[in-house]
Amino acid sequence: MIGQFDETDKKILRRLGENARVPFSTLANELGISNTMVHQRVNKLRQSGVIKNATYVFEPKVLGYTTEAMTRIQVTNAKYVNSLIAALKEIPEIVECSNITGKYALIIKIFAKDNSHLRDVLYSRIHPLAGVEGTDTTISFETAFQKNIAIE
């Protein structure tokens, strides 16, 4: 997909990856192109699906969510995967879910206020779901880094 884009598109993507709120006028000045051209390029990148969204990223610890965990979910039967994904999406503490290969069908990222809260999420809201055979949870000390895919 990236082969369809020229160097100006790539520069715009790199800069927006650093700061999605950079004013288009600043981008235009940095790249030596017009504001209109920046708007057109960004719209093209949105329409093509390269840019999903521009959003604020919250800091969970500042909001009182001091426990971060990755939980792998083993399912009794593959037929439950889609309904589990839908149910997990409704649990506010779960911020990410991926369908994976191997013994476990799903891996989720959970933010909880503390270990007791995490236990409640696991035992009261995840384990009772139809199709959940078991879970394996790893508590994260910190997110060492998080970044977008490289634009080369």
UniProtKB/TrEMBL annotation:
Which key words tag this protein in UniProt?
Answer: DNA-binding, Transcription, Transcription regulation
In Pfam terms, one family for this protein is HTH_24
Q: Where is the HTH asnC-type domain?
A: 5-66
Keyword DNA-binding attributed:
yes
Instruction: Please give an example of a GO cellular component term from this record.
Output: cytosol
* MF terms (GO), sorted A to Z: sequence-specific DNA binding
The cross-references to SMART domains, in alphabetical order and at most eight, read: HTH_ASNC (SM00344)
Matches recorded under InterPro entries: ArsR-like_HTH, AsnC-type_HTH_dom, Dimeric_a/b-barrel, Tscrpt_reg_AsnC-like, Tscrpt_reg_AsnC/Lrp_C, WH-like_DNA-bd_sf, WH_DNA-bd_sf
Q: Which PANTHER family match?
A: LEUCINE-RESPONSIVE REGULATORY PROTEIN, TRANSCRIPTIONAL REGULATORY PROTEIN (PROBABLY ASNC-FAMILY)-RELATED
Name of this protein: Lrp/AsnC family transcriptional regulator, regulator for asnA, asnC and gidA
